[in-house]
Amino acid sequence: MKDIFDLALLQNTIRTATPLILAALGGLLTMHAGILNIGMEGMILIGAFFGVLGSYFFASSFMGVVLAIISGIVIGALFGFFVIELKSDEFIIGIAINIFAGGLTVFLLRSIFGVKGAFSSPDIKPLPDLHLPFLDKIEVLDKIFNNHSILVYVSWILVLLIYILLYKTPYGYWIRGVGEHEEAIETAGINPKKIKYISSILGGVFCGIAGAHLSLGYLTLFTENMSAGKGFISLAAIIFGGSNPIKVYGASLLFGFFDALGIRMQSLGIASQFTQMIPYVATVLVLFMVAQKKLMKRKGN
Amino acid sequence: MRGKFNEQLEYLGSLFLAIFLALVLGAGIMILNGKNPVQGYMALVSGALGSKYLLATTLAKTVPLILTGLATAISFKSGIFNIGGEGQLYLGAFAAAYVGFTFTELPVVVGIVLAVIAAMVVGGLYAFIPGLLKVYYNIDEVITTIMFNSIAIMFTGYLVNYPFQASQGKMGGTDMIAEGFKFPKLVAMSKLNTSIFYTMIIAVLIYYLMKKTSYGYNFKIVGENSIFSRYAGINNKKYMIWAMIISGALCGIAGAFEVYGTHYRFLQNISKGLAFDGMLVSLIVKNNPVGIVLMSLFFAILKTGSNAMELNTGVPSELILVIQSVIILFIAGESGFKEILKRRQLNKARTVK
Fold it and tell me: What sections of the protein cross the membrane (chain A) (predicted)?
């Protein structure tokens, strides 16, 4: 047990939770606007690739993140165009984006870098770690929360910002309104299409940043299919947290913990599949409990 | 009737246009890479159909596509969306493999039939749960089936690495199934085996079910208009759940055939998105069973041919994934594109006046 549960595990939790937090923040925005985005998996993958591309060619991790964000804008706009403008089924487009991302990134990997499977190079500049001096004094906090890659801290700030955006600004009111009562928003003189576009594009951007964290912060390389289900865990976190940024943040940390635990158990030769399964099982259970409550209420009435 | 015929003709036009545009895009990418697209596509076609062996390889690839495509069609037509084919395929494949390496003494026919039934039951049950949750609790089946995919893949991953690990060598695989259970190969060295015949029979049965029986008609109107079908006295819930079960059973069979025809054991990565490919196939042809068979062949040609294209011209084979996803984007946006075009024309007509 001592081999498994220690401070390093909590530190790893922070690391593994970050891509989930970032992607889930994007996904919950589209979710609030009434669009289920199951293309997050592919969007993360594309972000991871362009992060490496930017960092490698401009010799700057900042440019890597910029490129990942641009790729997120493009893919988010594409998703939005099909779902909002052409009124295509959102999950068909989501699946298409996942397959497209898998093909595109490997294709580009091979035609630009000429390698198969994975690309790593000393010329890929990793994101810098951040040292918070005020944490030095308390050893426990220092070990868990200090010296992480910069996007880890950015993701925490973003959680708050998105919370404020959603619940304290008119934009948030409109985004939530579009998802709930599109007509009401329209009569208020707001163009619901525009709101939906903004949330789709923001969704893409956040997934792009999540990808950049994977390939420049968490690791410093790109591998085929490196999103490895993170988009789906993020989706689970969104549903588990009821699309509320703070709760989704908590869910992401929880799921990140199981991910970190799984990695630790694997390295010790213990079956990790059941701990890794927890996010998915928990999400279905939560859906079931919420649905049952609704059903009881209706029966009560 | 005539209206419907015209509609289908129009759709075929859009389909060919979508494929054409996607191939043009592929050609453009090849040119950007400094390759000759004519050479690339020629290599692709001859690499998929150029010899008996290649043709067999191509045909072998249609089997899982057709089965998972039909699985998608029957659920989508009924208005319930089974995205969980991948998980159902994994569980079905494992169940079939279990029968094959456990009951090795059974007569061949009994063993195989038992394996396929096991795969159908497991796959069907695994689809039944999200169906039930959808129909009685109104829980979005898209979300539950996605979650169920991950759960099934991890669960079989556990089974194959711990309790059912191969007795010798090879990580991530079970023991081989009994020698006699292996489906005979039709062309030496290729992967083409007798499962293609079973798949054809299943395709005909599903076609018959969907197009020629009252069940099929009911599935369709349940999908198109659940209020109308309720007035017509059809039990929507029952039909949606059965659609999920049949869909899951078909994915289970696809898994069983992967084991009995191709790998002869369960592998932890037995399918890298086969069910999602099948879903694309079905969506492109709007869930039409005949279309699924033809489109599966097209996808299989692209898949097999892309390897030859890569060898001969240096164009990475993943280009075809880009082409396939672009086709589905065009088709998914079809009605929207048409609407925009119509609006443009109307606007033009107005300005002329």
Answer: 16-35, 65-84, 91-113, 150-167, 201-221, 233-258, 270-291
Domains of chain A: 7-128+138-300 (1.10.3470)
Quote ipTM for the complex.
0.90
Domain that holds residue B249: 60-299
Q: Any idea what the Cα angle at residue A107 is, between residues B157 and B90, rounded to 5°?
A: 20
Query: How far is the C-alpha of B120 from the C-alpha of B113, rounded, in Å?
Result: 10
Check: CB of residue B187 under 8 Å from CB of residue B56. Answer: yes
Which region, left, alpha or beta, applies to residue B301 given φ > 0 means left and ψ of -120 to 50 means alpha?
alpha
In a domain, B173, yes or no: yes
**Strand (E) positions, A123-246?**
129-130, 148-149, 222-223
**A63-92 per-position pLDDT tens digit:** 999 999 999 999 999 999 999 999 888 988
The number of domains in chain B is: 1
Question: Which residues touch B313 (CB under 8 Å, ≥6 apart)?
Answer: B30, B35, B36, B39, B40, B43
B340 CB within 8 Å of a chain A CB: yes
Binary contact (B143, A229; C-beta < 8 A):
no
- Confirm whether B124 is domain-assigned: yes
Least CB–CB distance from A96: residue in B146, B151, B328: B328
Residue B334 lies in a domain: no
This prediction has a pTM of 0.92
Distance between CA atoms of residues B222 and B79, nearest Å: 7
